[in-house]
Every structure is written in structure tokens, then in C-alpha cells.
Known about the structure:
57 residues, 7 strands, globular, three-stranded antiparallel beta sheet, two-stranded antiparallel ribbon
Amino acid sequence: MFTCRNQPCGAQWQPSEVEIRNEGQGTMFRCPLCGSRNYVERVTKDDGSVVYKQPRA
Length: 57
């Protein structure tokens, strides 16, 4: 679950509900509700699969 870091918004999203991409400033998703940028970290698991995690605030 990802949470929008924009304080007035705070909406929560499943990973399937957001598009994760690099907009030139790092890996992030834009909140579908307010459009705020939210940074995520790309993590490669031992089995080679990639997951994205939101860093703690």
C-alpha cells in the first residue's frame, strides 16, 4: 500500500492503482487524486523479482 505524502491528501493506493516511473528526479508515482509526486525505492528480491517500497517519512 502506498500513501500520498501530500499532507492535505493522504490517500492510500494499491501498487496496481499507480504508475511508477522515473521523471528525471528518481523513481516515483504521482497520486491519482491530487497529482503530488511520491518517491519510491526499487528493491530487487533474492528471486530476481522487483518490488517498490515507499521510504518512511
